[in-house]
Amino acid sequence: MTSTELWRRSARALASAYAEGSTTPAEVVGSVIEHAARVDGRLNVFAHRAFDAARAQAEQSTLRWRRGEPLSPYDGVPLTVKDNIPVAGMPCEWGSRVFEGRVAPRDELCVARLRERGWVVLGKTNVSEFTLGRGNVSTRLHGTTRNPWDPALTTGASTGGGAAAVASGVGPVALGTDGGGSIRWPAGYCGLVGLKPSVGRVPRVDGLPVVLHDFEVAAPLARSVADVEALLDAIAGPDPRDRASHLTPAAAGPDRSLRIRYVPQFGEHPVDPEITASVGVVADRLRALGHQVDAGPAPHDVATFDAHWPTVGTAGLAWLLRGHDGWRDIVADIYPPMVAHGESLSAVDYVAALTAFRGLYLELADCFRTTDLLLTPVAGAMPWPADRLAPPHQRVFTGIANATGVPAISLPGPRRRPGCRSGSSSSPRSAPTGCCCASPRSTSRPTRGPTADPSRHRRTHHDRSDRLIRHRRTRRRRRPHRRAAPPRGGHHPPAGPRGQNRGQRADRRLLP
User: Fold this and answer.
1) Nearest alpha-carbon partner for 223 in 176, 182, 174
2) Of residues 61, 82, 410, 426, which has the active-site annotation?
3) How far is residue 103's CA from residue 98's CA, in Å, rounded to a whole number?
4) 382-410: string of b/e by CB count within 10 Å (b at 16+)?
5) CA gap 44, 36 in Å, rounded
């Protein structure tokens, strides 16, 4: 296995290679760091690089594997961590000059759990300021993060640094947060799998101040569902310091094919035609696989959600910046109006918003009596220039899962035709598509019925997602080797030296 191949490998493939002794964590981390040095100048993935510490951790992991004493099957697998999740001894600046130079005194619980299992932290990835951006990662502190498929375009939201890292091969997985779509949008725009778990699935302890109530969850994104599952297994589970983490027991899933409501549009919010077409193909594929897919309207009152959604974020930001003198001079221009709105709200307004979201949850619960999944686009707009704000209709689909606490996952959709353009720039290969919001009950055993594969991910790509829907595993037929075939052990975008699609402009040097 050459050094070039190592940085392409999935987390599961690396775990298998470590167990077989065909490579070591030291070799893998070295390969990933060398690759990061080649691509980060164009993508601007990192807010902080911890490469020396990562090499040292990898050497220790290598010794443990040689002794036959790994801390877990994933001991020595590298990952990146979003810069709003504290990692002891590393800066945690939240994308803002307000917190410039702040160093985390301890790990957040999810990071501590990863360290206990031997995962290697490469560094902190760029985030939108306060993780309350408007559809890009472009800050005065760390600059603009760019999409590996086309560096002129955005990665989509505050976990955009982690998405750019994974999509370009800087680690097989990333740990991020999702408070309104911040994992799912970048996953959609970078051709990845992005999970927003149920509230409490991953406990939040020793983290940054809470500005989004319990809407924001820590979660993985990766190039395959299998790797998302691996990282979720490492960080999930109850903790006595987070009461919500005790409220997510596993339950049996449906013993049949799935009943899916396909919702192509929320209310009157527009959706770019490329996205509508892409998600429509996914719906047709699911029907062909034997699932019941019926098109219908949003199961909740969209106007109520729109009216109350700004309340929590603006109130939280106004609270956060109290006592920080001079903050208006060093933050982006979009934040003073947000703070002014938050300061104008009353406690009555805040309670009214939470009460409204509770009502929306009940509407979803009623829908899930007869529906197993909601299938929607991830976003309403194709990606736009990296340093510009998102169009308003971009963010309409994702926040409802955060406001109600239900789980959701973003899966790559069918590719657009090569050469198609969005605005003045060519678009990534994967349109934002396939946000599947499951009912607010977790499943601990496989469902029976067809194995859904709408996105042409791995044939077992629905192994498990937040323990919500587990389809029976199926064996994948061995096919003759093709140049564009993904490497064994996980999905990679069909780009770079291993098969860039003709007519696409993704930079070969920036993609696995």
Assistant:
1) 174
2) 82
3) 13
4) bbbbbeebbbebbbbbbbbbbbbbbbbbb
5) 10
Is 446 or 319 the better-scoring residue by pLDDT? 319
When pLDDT is cut at 50, 70 and 90, the band that residue 337 belongs to is very high
Q: What CA–CA distance (Å, rounded) separates 155 from 157?
A: 6
Q: Which amino acid, residue 224?
A: S
Q: What is the mean pLDDT of the chain?
A: 84
Question: What share of the chain has pLDDT > 70, as a percent?
Answer: 79
- Report the largest interatomic distance among the alpha carbons of the chain, rounded to a whole angstrom: 64
First to last CA, the chain: 15
What is the tens place of the pLDDT at every residue in 344-400? 999 999 999 999 999 999 999 999 999 999 999 999 999 999 999 999 888 899 999
* Backbone torsion region of residue 61, taken as left when φ is above 0, otherwise alpha when ψ lies between -120 and 50, otherwise beta: alpha
List the structure tokens of 362: 């009940």
Distance CA 377, CA 397 (A): 7
Measured in residues, the chain has a length of 512
Q: Rounded to two decimals, what is the model's pTM?
A: 0.85
Task: Give the C-alpha separation, 357 to 351, whole Å.
Answer: 10
CA angle, 6 then 10 then 13, to 5°: 80
* Whether 245 contacts 237, CB under 8 Å: yes
Q: Given its phi and psi angles, is residue 181 left (phi above 0), alpha (psi -120 to 50 degrees) or beta?
A: left
Known catalytic membership, residue 182: yes
The single-letter code of the amino acid at 197 is P
> pLDDT tens for residues 427-478?
333 334 445 554 445 444 333 333 333 333 333 333 333 333 333 333 333 3
How far, in Å, CA of 492 to CA of 191, rounded? 9
82 carries an active-site annotation: yes
Catalytic residue selected from 10, 61, 138, 182:
182
Residue 134 CB burial class (10 angstroms; 0-12, 13-18, ≥19): middle
Which residue in 61, 96, 128, 158 is the catalytic one? 158
Please tell me the distance from the alpha carbon of residue 302 to that of residue 299, in angstroms, as a whole number: 9
Q: Across residues 96-100, what is the average pLDDT?
A: 98
AA letter at 353: A
Residues 6+ apart with CB under 8 A from 121: 50, 53, 54, 57, 78, 79, 80, 81, 87, 90, 111, 114, 115
Greater confidence (395 vs 226) lies with 226
